[in-house]
Write a structure and sequence with these properties.
By secondary structure, the protein is mainly alpha-helical. About 70% of the residues lie in helices and about 0% in strands. The protein has helices spanning about 5-15, 20-30, 45-60, 75-90, 95-125, 130-150. The relative contact order is 0.21.
Length: about 160
């Protein structure tokens, strides 16, 4: 069950490449990653956390611009795979960090294509800025909930046992 966090955060990377790293570095810096996690020590660095938050904020702003590239272009996919891998490894138990990285990367690729298709449909109906804002809220909210859940916080209602 511990690897579900890696998969879910990888899915967030499919929507927003930098949001998972911002969430994971913030959790690492504040000591809120799961015990025995696979996170590199660098993620807990204050400068790394601040840098990832700045990059994520820039991505959220840049995504609303008409010149923003599609998320499925090669550079975008490389970024999503990389951040999905890092976040997936960080949320996985230490002994399963390689599997967590693989699952995070795979989920990022799959979700990038799913959300690209959904976003193109939504843009045609509602416009780029409004659909981007909704997607931002989903990505940021999901990343925050996933890191909270991974650290032992409240589980989503459907998964309470």
């Amino acid at each position: 069950m511990a690897l579900i966090h890696s998969i879910l955060m990888g899915a967030v990377a499919g929507m927003r490449a930098m949001t998972p790293l911002a969430a994971v570095t913030n959790a690492a810096r504040s000591g809120n990653l799961p015990a025995d996690n696979g996170a590199p020590r660098l993620l807990a660095n204050k400068l790394a956390s601040a840098g990832m938050l700045a990059l994520a904020g820039g991505e959220l702003v840049g995504d609303k611009m008409n010149t923003a590239p599609d998320r499925i272009v090669p550079a975008g996919m490389v970024a999503r795979v990389a951040t999905g891998m890092i976040a997936g490894a960080a949320l996985a138990p230490h002994r399963q960090r390689k599997l967590g990285a693989l699952l995070g990367a795979g989920a990022a690729v799959g979700m990038a294509y799913v959300t690209f298709n959904l976003r193109m449909r939504a843009i045609a109906r509602y416009g780029q800025s409004s659909t981007g804002a909704v997607e931002d809220a989903i990505a940021v909210g999901s990343a925050a909930l996933i890191t909270q859940w991974a650290a032992g916080g409240a589980k989503p209602r459907g998964l309470r046992g």
